[in-house]
Amino acid sequence: MLLALASAAIETMKPENIVIMKPAILVTGGAGYVGSHTVAALLEKPNTDVEVVVVDNLSNAYRSEGQKKPEAIKIIEELTGKTIHFYDVDIRDANALREVFEKHDVACVIHFAALKAVGESVQKPLEYYQANITGTCTLFDVMRAFGVYKLVYSSSCTVYGEPESLPLGEGHPTGRGLASPYGKSKYFCEEIMKDICRSDRKWSVISLRYFNPVGAHRSGRIGEDPAGVPNNLMPFIAKVAVGRLKELQVFGADYPTIDGTGVRDYIHVEDLADGHVKAIKLFSQTGFNGFHAVNLGTGTGYSVLQMVKAFEEVSGKKIPYKIVGRRDGDIAANYADVSLSHRMLGWRATRTLRDMCADTWRWQSNNPDGYKST
Fold first, then answer.
1. What angle do CA 86, 92, 94 make, to 5 degrees?
2. Which of 63, 95, 124, 151 has the fewest Cβ atoms nearer than 10 Å?
3. In the 8-state DSSP scheme, what is residue 16?
4. Residue 272 has pLDDT above 90, yes or no
């Protein structure tokens, strides 16, 4: 009996019977706007010998009826010729997350999954704290249980609050005078991550504080497709341009800015995706650990009306707009000091405002109803 068991054990150890799992990058919220573009960037890199695993609860992503994968993921597979492992999972569901980790050799995590609209968060603070903070804590708990200690976090410039000076550098105070539950949730998560990294030197967390993502994939096949009325400027402008919305609402024209409208640092989503790919490379450096915050932006601010004009020039469409009152949670202006991203990541934004508008227009004009058009 013992010989039989030993023989069976040896048989299972033969090379043809050993399943070698490739290292995997787990992307939470990978079917959303920035997440999907980052998944595409990961798979477009030559000689990529890792699996990409996406978990998403599809709260802000479209999946056709009867399909297993959302449209964005299916299109990325077509564009890259590579397979993406997708799981319809809410990161607050610890048991479902554990099942994903059991199936894949997760080496690191890129964490996008969150609710993200500043204005909506003022109306739904509890939902934002549950999704963004509880979900993040659950994710960290499962990561620790499986010995995964490397994470790139999708943070936001909102953690800086009302700027004390511009441009905003990583040394600017965070957590002061935060005007929205969304911004507070990102700040609280960063503080949690700092504490975790201080408690255990095995952890490495890179928090990418990005400014305002716009644009779309150069193919025109993936882009921003918000459910319902857009909360962000560029998709709102694009929806007006294709006739899906009557006019743009401009929230406030009495800010102390060049034309009275809010000024933001807009960054092309493909530049942003490249920043995440660069961040992952830091994990391979000997001795790299702890918490690190890095801005991702262009360093240049544009007003709402400047964005409208730029989009009109690219699209040839007139964008009607109406000035309305300020929106709760908004600030007058912010734009980034991006010098640390140049030094630490070897990264810089290369795409212009015209590129941002042209790629957005290509996506929206080809897909007037977003992914439902495909």
1. 80
2. 95
3. G
4. yes
Is 182 tagged catalytic? yes
% residues pLDDT > 90 (the chain): 87
Q: How far is CA 163 from CA 125, 144, 170, 179, 280, in A?
A: 23, 35, 12, 12, 29
Average pLDDT, the chain: 93
pLDDT in tens, 117-158: 888 899 999 999 999 999 999 999 999 999 999 999 999 999
The CA-atom distances, in angstroms, between 159 and each of 49, 187, 334, 349 are: 35, 5, 12, 21
Whether the CB-CB separation of 279 and 152 falls below 8 Å is answered with: yes
Distance from C-alpha of 300 to C-alpha of 335, rounded to nearest angstrom: 6
CA proximity to 211, closest of 288, 275, 128, 132: 275
Give pTM, 2 decimals.
0.93
pLDDT digits (tens, 9 = 90+) for 192-228: 999 999 999 999 999 999 999 999 999 999 999 987 7
Instruction: Provide the 8-state DSSP code for 169.
Output: P
Identify which of 253, 243, 331, 339 has the alpha carbon closest to the alpha carbon of residue 297: 339
In this prediction, residue 5 has a pLDDT band, given cuts at 50, 70 and 90, of very low
What are 168's strand-pairing partners?
336
d(CA 258, CA 313): 20
Distance from C-alpha of 351 to C-alpha of 159, rounded to nearest angstrom: 25
Pick the catalytic residue from 87, 153, 160, 182.
182
Q: Determine the average pLDDT of the residues in 279-285.
A: 96
Residue 271 DSSP SS3: helix
How far from 233 is each of 19, 247, 363, CA to CA, in Å? 48, 12, 15
Q: Judge whether 266 and 353 are in contact, CB under 8 Å.
A: yes
CA 107 to CA 113: how far, in whole Å? 18
Helix and strand totals (H; E) in the chain: 13, 13
Q: Which of 360, 270, 370, 271 is nearest to 60 (CA)?
A: 370
In the numeric block, the tokens 């999946």 are attached to 63
Q: What is the mean pLDDT of residues 82-87?
A: 97
What separation in angstroms does the CA of 133 have from each of 3, 35, 163, 339, 360?
A: 54, 18, 24, 29, 31
Per-residue pLDDT, 20? 58
Residue 50 has pLDDT above 60, yes or no: yes
